[in-house]
Amino acid sequence: MRKVYFNGEFVDEADAKISIYDSALMFGDMIFEMTRSFNKEQFKLREHIDRLYASAKYLQIGLEEQMSKEEMIEAVNKTIEINAPFFEADDEHRIMIDVTRGLLGLYEDVVGTRKGLNIIIADFPLRWTVASMGMLFDKGINAIIPSQRAIPASLIDPKVKNRSRIHYLMANIQVSGYEGDNNWALLLDTDNFVAEGTGDNFFIVKDGVVITPEPRNILRGISREYVFELCGQLGMEYREKNIDVYDVVNADEAFMTGTPFCILPVTSLAGDKIGTGKMGEITTKLLKTWSDNVGVDIIGQIKGWGSGSTGKDSGAPTPYAFKRK
Length: 325
What we know:
By secondary structure, this protein is of the alpha+beta class. It has 2 domains: 3-125, 2-Layer Sandwich (D-amino Acid Aminotransferase, Chain A, domain 1), CATH 3.30.470.10; 132-305, D-amino Acid Aminotransferase, subunit A, domain 2 (D-amino Acid Aminotransferase, Chain A, domain 2), CATH 3.20.10.10. It has helices spanning 23-27, 45-58, 63-66, 69-83, 127-130, 136-139, 166-175, 222-234, 245-249, 281-294, 298-305, and strands spanning 3-6, 9-12, 30-34, 37-38, 41-42, 93-100, 118-125, 141-144, 183-188, 194-197, 201-206, 209-212, 238-240, 253-258, 262-269, 272-273. The strands form 3 sheets. Strands 8, 9, 10, 11, 12, 13, 14, 15 and 16 form a 9-stranded mixed β-sheet that branches. A 5-stranded antiparallel β-sheet has the order 2-1-7-6-3. A two-stranded antiparallel ribbon has the order 4-5. Mean pLDDT is 95; it is low at 308-312.
């Protein structure tokens, strides 16, 4: 059985539980990071850890006082090592780090549960997240703009990666009412500029330039930053700027980025084709270069998992979609 790092110990996955009186349950008061590996090697782990600690500092969760960054990285690697025997040969490691503030003060000393932060590190097969996404490399995402808006930084800074994400879920619920397949939410901010997806960053390509929303009202994704690196490697121009819906409609290409799938094409907006309606030349080049850099055929790997056993489709919500039962 897979093991979970839980406050310095390794426990069975089924036994990794927090109190019903934890601040995470009461307020959604939890920061987190999720990573992936390529050929079993974690990708951009340091960057994910740096963002986790930046989120903790902003929310005044005393993570660094309890566990240094180096200790966190060591705990991640130990979690991977312990769980390695439970992974198939072609699996990749999907690490999930959750940090909660712990019990609310009202319940300390009266419920028989330890005080202080909860630091939880889980390791599960990446295929769980992406096995159903293989066909999207061919068909592409149909972006839908819901009425739900992104939360602006003036209210709650979205650069803090936290579990209080009901606006993402509401956007996915609204998008689930649209006909057709492959519908993913694309959120606007309160100024009606394109912001982000519900767990992914958004890009368009116009006249050879890679363009993405300025980082004011979005989560600054690790994959988003890596696309900038890829653009530099390939000599492509990129810009961060406000994007209107008009710009999306008239783009040559569009794509989403996210840690588990890296890059997925967005081929239509509310059913209307973007560009040719297929993955574009620049999107293809970025994804191929990413694959070459990490030594993994990203598309081939995800498509290969599509025929594997990933459990039944229960219709439960995912980070990217909500299915009505």
